[in-house]
């Protein structure tokens, strides 16, 4: 297919884009090799092509390129990376090239980084409960194997610690199966990557993890490929090798900014906050690469991390992410400032796949109702706190005061736990009942009477 | 007509391809592009240049590649076998695709939407010699245990029936009947094509008057929709659009459901696919899948096909409507459709209007919702289509263009509220921001159950509205500052929210609430309110009423009393009245 003609006449450079005139036999989406005057190779992809010119995006960026002396070859096929079990324990750049000094990956298996859409008919609905050992997640926002559940964070909040704790503690109650972590860093600082690598090492999973780094000092456009490279390897390991893969992508906000940069250098009409109108579809092409298949044993569980600019959940990045993922874990600055770890916000957090992964035979029969009741009661706490701020706590009714007590206990005992504290689901539910038993029985209208009978702790026994 | 036109590609920009040389090609014709013969549609003609929107991944396509067109418009194949099937946006069968290429969707696959080998038991209803008009039902097929497929004479075909096969088993490719038309002999089969963007005609439109019963209390009682009506469900992420659509697709009393997953999650379609074959429709004891057609063009599938998906869905709906059925269409989410439109229009270089959407966004939305309605079909039977579209406003802000335009064209607006959703008050349909224009249209239907239905409904609604007003005051001064009668309103409103408005889709008992049960619950609540208020006026404390066991029991009726044992609510009502009466005498 490849035309192997070398073009030397760039007609322009703009942001990460170059324009090449007089091209022949170039396809949309073709991969392009670009050599600058010193012979250094970069990789690009054709975004637009007509009979005269091609528009090419360059993943390593255009810095240092000039219109003269740049040589361009269109090599034809789509961007591919090697995939192999041997890639576990290794570190790569965003394009899947080793950067750990160890040898190249030798395999015939190359896969297109863009993947292909999974046929909805071929999916298996995810149902297996993953115990993370974190009460706020297991009890109220259960993670399911094959789910895409992002962490919405803010600058300075401990999202990395939470993700690392999950990577370390996550396990399936029913079976022992091969579990791996793939970590992709986009535009974050080296110390963030270092933190993950160290914590994977400490928990002994580094040797069967793969790491893709496109750090803050790499060209921003490389960030657009990084999660795709990571997910391509994940798909291979999950659906061909039958492994259960947890993919951590951080920070998706940097990814989106790179996309915005590319879009604006193409002169596209922006949608909200300068992001392109296709941000939703683009993000979906990353996030939808999670799940389980009817054929094949493995699974891809995605945990993207993003920082919300000015903690604003309606910003396009968290907003469009929330519209695609199956829930979200939201971190709250107010809890963080109170010293509560993990500061997982009680109300805006949600796991949509929870419903089918919990209950009798999976976790415990009362799990769903306990979670619903905790949410409802905590929502009431928030209302009463707002009221108390105005009328003063003394003016509250007795019942309202009981709710405030419940609220504090919920945050300090249920939500709050140590970085190395690994609670079983039974422990989590037990703490949940302790909290609920601070409220009068009649307030627990979300819970079946028989379960109240069974689990409610009478006042004198509930210290 | 079968004369192929050929041309060549001159430019590729994403899924938008420019070609030359296709002289005589028409708007909306299918064009097959490149060596893989990717399916595309002519969406614009500009002098020499034909602009084609390609429905599959077209990486690798280059200037010079061939384009072929047979002059046929992009169409939907209508016939037996649609039920229980699942298609992509341009009606390619997803089951068939998985058989050809496994778990991933590859490009260039061409498969018939309907099984061409399957033999259907056909029962003729007319005989040779009859004068036949377009839209006439000429025979029947048991398509699924729940659906009798009525075979229609294609539109535009009328004349004397020359022959028709005997009862027996036939495939969709066999000739079934022949009609002597003015244009010559027409050979009819069990399946026909219909252009996807063109509404199917009917005799005349009628005013809807029967409610679509959904079993969801806040909808049926407070914001009902009529069969043949239109509704929008706008809401930010995670507020319950999909859950509501699923609940309606499961429990509403339409004959046929067309579920369109338009630019949403793959797993949500898998959920439908795994759930519906297992869920049993209580009215007939059959699995819900036997009345359901699914279109899935998920967010990661090609964007242009997403734009077509809603037309594919609604055309299938019209086809069943024309058989005389009541069809409900769920489109989740129309915002993703609008975004597809925006993306394509921006690649075409159209001048954008609000937020980058093309100026024709409003018109397109109006055309879509216009395909709903109760009609007299060409066969003389009544049929109807109800369209329920989810809207996903950026940032949950309803002032954005898609929500705004949609609200102009729908008559029912179920506004989802983020605060309710965060508090896990489901369905989080706001009783303040929602509205319906069908109340008076369908009042008569409810009157058959209870003369005073509308009055009761309005009385309870007024408690909620009064509560909303008082909440603003409470926010400033606290509830203790209110007089007891107003405190009692707050108390009752709280009970109404818990005992009536909230409905958990996962609760085996409460997921569907029969209209009769809705009525009885409503009456119990109103009794509590009216009789209790009297007591409060006479000096009984709100707390005294609130702490009665029978009063706190009311929130459990919805999940503890089965739809078929409503006398339990009558018994409850007696106990409630007695307790309140005792409180009165103790004064
Ligand atoms: N009626 C209900 N009963 C119980 N739970 C509900 C109900 N409605 C919504 N939920 C809960 O809310 C979650 C989100 O609902 P849903 O998926 O319908 O949101 P959505 O509005 O479609 O969001 P998106 O726009 O992101 O697709 C569900 O997973 C479920 O946990
Ligand atoms: Mg949804």
Short description:
The complex is a heterodimer of chains A (463) and B (587). With 463 residues, chain A is α/β, with parallel strands linked by helices. Chain A has 3 domains: 6-78, Elongation Factor Tu (Ef-tu), domain 3; 81-357, Rossmann fold; 367-461, no CATH class.
How many runs of DSSP E, i.e. beta strands of chain B? Answer: 28
Distinct helical segment count of chain A: 13
Q: What is the H level of CATH, i.e. the homologous superfamily of the largest domain in chain B?
A: P-loop containing nucleotide triphosphate hydrolases
Main CATH class of the largest domain in chain B: Alpha Beta
The CA-CA distance between the termini of chain A, in Å, is 75 Å
Number of domains of chain B: 4
Estimate percent helicity of chain B: 25-40%
**What fold name goes in the CATH topology slot of the largest domain in chain B?**
Rossmann fold
Q: Quaternary status of these chains?
A: heterodimer
User: What does the average pLDDT of chain A come to?
Assistant: 92
Termini separation of chain B (Å)? 90 Å
By CATH, the architecture of the largest domain in chain B is named 3-Layer(aba) Sandwich
Tell me the strand percentage band of chain A: 15-25%
Please state the overall shape of chain B, judged from the principal axes of the Cα atoms.
globular
Q: Largest sheet of chain A, if any?
A: 10 strands, mixed
Largest sheet of chain B: 8 strands, mixed
Which descriptor suits the 3D outline of chain A?
Answer: elongated
CATH class of the largest domain in chain A: Alpha Beta
Q: Which percent range fits the helix content of chain A?
A: 25-40%
Overall CATH architecture of the largest domain in chain A = 3-Layer(aba) Sandwich
